[in-house]
Write a structure and sequence with these properties.
220 residues; alpha/beta; six-stranded mixed sheet; 5 helices; 30% helix; globular
Length: 220
């Protein structure tokens, strides 16, 4: 099994590193599967720019030449792609019994499915902008609360690892937190592929039994 996994591209958001992803996509070796682990688009129903539409068209085109799996995240759970080609849409995905692939929102009762928490951070973000603060995206705003963000990332990891253990997986990969990391917790390998809304962007390369978390080439 050869697969490349990325998460949290957030097409449609002005912070998306979409141009870098387009170059990354065009350079993928032909024999590798492509797995998009959630939040490929930023918001259901939000209009996409022609460049974003072009990237979706490229993803669809790739599905005719390689296996392309789109694991839905909290941002794109209801997104419908017209003429999706051969893209395989999933809630979760597995590579044999080796690796569980889940965006992460399915494990998240603290933030991702907590409307009050999301609305609170957005409100604080608006206050920050009103005071003349630098414009940041929602994830970057959360990262300013370092103690909470550290707790949140650990919380999601624990939930994901527990689920992976219960279902017989040796490893699990998520996105969702926008925090790239690769560690072993409670005997299970946990890999988070970060995001493509701030630099550096990451991807997980799976080559048989070997898995490596890498920084995508290029510059911010």
């Amino acid at each position: 099994m050869k697969a490349i996994i990325i998460s949290d591209l957030h097409l449609g958001a002005r912070f998306s590193l979409s141009r870098h992803f387009e170059n990354f996509l065009k350079a993928l070796p032909e024999e590798w599967d492509l797995i998009l682990n959630g939040d490929v688009v930023d918001k259901h129903g939000k209009s996409l720019t022609p460049s974003d539409q072009r990237i979706l068209a490229l993803i669809k085109k790739e599905s005719f030449h390689r296996k392309v799996v789109w694991v839905r995240g909290n941002h794109d759970s209801h997104f419908l792609l017209e003429e999706p080609g051969k893209i395989d849409f999933k809630g979760m995905y597995r590579l044999d019994n080796q690796l569980l692939i889940a965006h992460g929102d399915v494990f998240d009762r603290l933030w991702g499915r907590n409307k009050v928490a999301v609305d609170t951070v957005r409100f604080m973000g608006n206050i920050w902008l009103g005071l003349g603060g630098q414009d940041v995206n929602l994830a970057q705003m959360v990262k300013r609360f370092k103690m909470f963000y550290k707790y949140y990332c650990k919380y999601l990891m624990q939930k994901a690892v527990r689920y992976a253990r219960q279902h017989g997986f040796a490893a699990v990969t998520c996105g969702h937190t926008h925090n790239a990391e690769d560690r072993v917790f409670d005997g299970i390998r946990y890999i988070n592929t970060g995001c493509w809304t701030e630099w550096p962007a990451y991807y997980l390369l799976v080559n048989g039994q070997e898995m490596t978390l890498n920084i995508a080439g290029g510059e911010e």
